[in-house]
Amino acid sequence: MRHGALGLGFALSATHAKAQAAARADRWPNFQQQDHALVREVVGASHRSLERVTELVTAHPALVNATHDWGFGDWETALGAASHVGNREVATFLLARGARLDIFAAAMLGFTDVVKAMLAALPDLARTRGPHGITLLAHARAGEHAPTIAYLEACEGAGGPEVAASEPVAAAPYVGTYTGEVGEIAVSEGRLGLMFQTRDQGSIRLTPTGEHTFHPAGAPNVRIVFTVVDGAATRVEVVEADWVVSAVRRP
Fold it and tell me: Does residue 29 fall inside a structural domain?
């Protein structure tokens, strides 16, 4: 009888251990990597909330250099998020906790001498875009530091290529739900213009590059091409090099 009780005890202990292991796996599904949900949250919060960023980074210090891919390779760090919206408090907090200073944060914070030194060493860096394809000059303007803005306004390429004024792209022909091998793709009209969303990812702003052709913000190497018949899109293709995903518009 005693042996039976011991056996039952071992069985219960094993069951409990498995349950604990499953619970740990649920809490940390990408073991060895940072929790993807936390990475996305801290990068998102870094646009707007010092309080939330402080909570997250205090609890998980490695998040200070977290980088999230919003889609198609539009990578953004927590510091990058704070920089392009001009959130000086969040940027300063992250740098104090060990975030890696880059030229975009330096431009927003008004570190003119740092920006000048980096561009003197590598002039083409002025043309490099930050998260979402945002220019170096736009980061400086977000920080509202006049000397940095004035310097970058004189730097070729820092404000991006000159684009002729044009009428906004009409969203109506493209708006709808498309179904393909990656599941559903939603195209909608948002505050920032035409937006693209797939699976459980966030919406991505589309930038027009040609007739019925766009690229996602921060990913100019990707093309999103709509087939339009009688004024309405019937199909969409996402193209990167020799990789193509297509979807057909649902009635």
Answer: no
Amino acid symbol at 251: P
pLDDT in tens, 17-60: 666 666 655 666 677 778 889 999 999 999 999 999 999 999 99
Number of continuous H segments (helices) and E segments (strands) in the chain: 9, 10
What is the pTM for the complete model shown?
A: 0.78
Tens of pLDDT, residue by residue over 132-155, are 999 999 999 999 999 999 999 999
Burial 189-198 (b: 16+ CB within 10 A, else e): eeeeebbbbb
CA pair distance 181, 199, nearest whole angstrom? 11
**143 contacts: CB under 8 Å, gap ≥ 6:** 83, 86, 88, 107, 108, 109, 110
What is the DSSP secondary structure assignment for residue 99, as one 8-state letter? P
* Cα angle 150-123-121, degrees, rounded to a multiple of 5: 110
Asked if 152 and 137 count as a contact pair (C-beta separation under 8 A), the reply is yes
- Take residue 125 and report the two structure tokens written for it: 């860096």
Work out the burial of residue 128: count CB atoms within 10 Å of its CB; fewer than 13 is exposed, 13-18 middle, 19 or more buried.
middle
Determine the Cα–Cα distance for residues 224 and 247; give it in Å rounded to an integer: 11
Please give the share of the chain, as a percent, with pLDDT higher than 70.
Answer: 85
Three-state secondary-structure class, residue 229 = strand
Same domain, 77 and 143: yes
Q: Which two tokens stand for residue 75?
A: 């990578």
CATH of the domain at 83: 1.25.40.20
Q: Are residues 87 and 144 in the same domain?
A: yes
Whose structure tokens read 């909608």? Answer: 188
Domains of the chain: total = 2
